């Protein structure tokens, strides 16, 4: 008989029912795997698609059969949503439009998806006294204070102007015509609403701010496991180029700096939030890996090396090309220079620290992508175009 599972304070962890909105996506699929394989919890998996969790739903002989139920629904217009939240102990909301190319080309859809569509979820949780874990984004921080300092300022070397703290850092966005900030603004506003529900109506909540979670099944490869039109986030863009044997496009020279964290490390953090409500309720958590910071150009160079290793193919003679943000994303694009998460709060409350190096997470991701997509892309490239 398995030993009882205890939380961080030594208390017995009782099985709960989790309503997971967006369970069929990248993060949701990994979280469902973790919950099925390592916990006794039950999951009501809500999404429009279930491709990434089919292996958890079939066949009926799986050891967790009966503990995960898929409900095909769109939270925009489905009367079943409140009933599913009512029968669960905890709701996790992962649903969002979160692709940078959409922020300034589909700003209305972006704002509706990330704010308007999330309102009923917050409302139902608050009215029915249900706990909520809401997934936000590191983009709520916007631009760093350091990005506004003069180029020759010695203060640009001070991490205090760049490290992002949940309870201190301001949220600085670009001007209104820079519609790239539509996503960040919508996400910040829903955070403020959740926080207000907690303060005024006693909603038990946790807000998660992911900093570039990377791993197998992430984002999409255009035309293969996602739309042929549109631009995914940077790592999926680079993966797509590598799989197709094309140069990696560096937007505005690839000088922006980012940190990346392995999905399996990040899911460990989420499980701690789920199973330690006394430590997680009322908290906003950065979940990232400040040790895995690189410029986008350095990321491209590293991914080129890693892909050559996992595929056995020689790198292109000219592996990268520079493009302007206007050319790549269209009018209205803007960006932040650095995003480095402060880890004080999550380490203090949950004792969590990421483990996986950038090289190792890239090797895991690109190995999966090469194995899964290489043949499909070769067929797509070889397919004759209809006249």
Automatic annotation (TrEMBL):
Keyword Cytoplasm: yes
Domain of life: Eukaryota
One annotated GO molecular function: UDP-D-apiose synthase activity
Membrane-spanning intervals of the chain: none
Catalysed reactions, semicolon-separated: UDP-alpha-D-glucuronate + H(+) = UDP-alpha-D-xylose + CO2; UDP-alpha-D-glucuronate + H(+) = UDP-alpha-D-apiose + CO2
Keywords tagged on the record: Cell wall biogenesis/degradation, Cytoplasm, Lyase, NAD
One Gene Ontology term, aspect cellular component: cytoplasm
Subcellular location: Cytoplasm
EC code(s) of this entry: 4.1.1.35
InterPro entries: Arna-like_SDR_e (IPR045869), Epimerase_deHydtase (IPR001509), Lipid_A_modif_metabolic_enz (IPR050177), NAD(P)-bd_dom_sf (IPR036291)
Gene3D superfamilies documented for this protein: NAD(P)-binding Rossmann-like Domain (3.40.50.720)
Family recorded in the similarity comment: Belongs to the NAD(P)-dependent epimerase/dehydratase family.
Name assigned to this protein: UDP-glucuronate decarboxylase
């Amino acid at each position: 008989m398995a030993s009882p599972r205890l939380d961080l304070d030594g208390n017995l962890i009782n099985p709960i029912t989790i309503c997971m909105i967006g369970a069929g996506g990248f993060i949701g699929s990994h979280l469902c795997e973790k919950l099925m394989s390592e916990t006794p919890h039950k999951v009501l998996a809500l999404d429009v698609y279930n491709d990434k969790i089919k292996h958890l739903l079939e066949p009926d002989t799986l050891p967790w059969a009966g503990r995960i139920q898929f409900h095909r629904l769109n939270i925009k217009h489905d009367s079943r949503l409140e009933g599913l939240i009512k029968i669960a102990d905890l709701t996790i909301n992962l649903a969002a439009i979160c692709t940078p190319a959409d922020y300034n080309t589909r700003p209305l859809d972006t704002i509706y998806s990330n704010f308007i569509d999330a309102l009923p979820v917050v409302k139902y949780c608050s009215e029915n006294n249900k706990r909520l874990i809401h997934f936000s984004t590191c983009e709520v921080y916007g631009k760093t204070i350091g990005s506004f300092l003069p180029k020759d300022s010695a203060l640009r070397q001070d991490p205090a102007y760049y490290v992002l703290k949940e309870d201190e850092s301001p949220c600085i966005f670009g001007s209104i015509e820079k519609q790239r900030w539509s996503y960040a603004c919508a996400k910040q506003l829903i955070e403020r609403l959740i926080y207000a529900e907690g303060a005024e109506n006693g909603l038990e909540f946790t807000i998660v701010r992911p900093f570039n979670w990377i791993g197998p099944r992430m984002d999409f490869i255009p035309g293969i496991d996602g739309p042929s039109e549109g631009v995914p986030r940077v790592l999926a863009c680079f993966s797509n180029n590598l799989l197709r044997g094309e140069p990696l496009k560096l937007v505005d020279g690839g000088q922006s700096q980012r940190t990346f964290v392995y999905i399996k490390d990040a899911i460990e953090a989420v499980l701690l939030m789920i199973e330690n409500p006394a430590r997680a309720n009322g908290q906003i958590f950065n979940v990232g890996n400040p040790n895995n910071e690189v410029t986008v150009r350095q990321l491209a160079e590293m991914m080129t090396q890693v892909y050559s290793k996992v595929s056995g193919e020689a790198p292109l003679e000219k592996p990268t090309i520079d493009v302007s943000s206007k050319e790549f994303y269209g009018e209205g694009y803007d960006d932040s220079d650095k995003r480095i998460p402060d880890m004080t709060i999550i380490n203090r409350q949950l004792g969590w620290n990421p483990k996986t190096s950038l090289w190792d997470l890239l090797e895991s991701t690109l190995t999966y992508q090469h194995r899964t997509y290489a043949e499909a892309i070769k067929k797509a490239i070889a397919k004759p175009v209809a006249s």
